[in-house]
Amino acid sequence: MPTTETPPGPVLAPPAAEVVTEVIARPVFDPRAFTRLELPAHVSAWVRGAWCRGWLIGRVHCADGWIGLVQYDDGTGREITTRIPADLITLPASPR
Question: Which domains are present in the chain?
């Protein structure tokens, strides 16, 4: 006959699944250089895991910060235009 008694000893919860989060450290973003660029401006943007050269053709300030409209070549000859957070857009290095 089943009983409604609690089992003796402490009741242990099953182990929680390990949670692994990836943290990407970025330098503090200063929007002054981004907002002062004359459009269109030649930039580098972090796209699909790599830096890509392109053109900043627009920008807008949203609740989450600055967003840039960037046009770049995807490597196959197609031009892609997409919105990218401003902290993932930088001026290209000057040739030396």
Answer: 31-90 (2.30.30)
Given a contact cutoff of 8 angstroms between Cβ atoms, the answer to whether 51 and 75 are in contact is: no
Cis peptide preceding 8, ω within 30 of 0: no
Q: What is the pLDDT of residues 12-64, one digit of tens each?
A: 545 555 555 565 555 566 788 888 889 999 999 999 898 999 999 999 998 88
Q: What is the pTM of this model?
A: 0.65
Closest CA relative to residue 51, chosen from 95, 94, 91, 96: 91
What is the tens place of the pLDDT at every residue in 4-15? Answer: 554 455 445 455
User: Would you call 58 exposed, middle or buried from its count of C-beta atoms within 10 A (0-12, 13-18, 19+)?
Assistant: middle
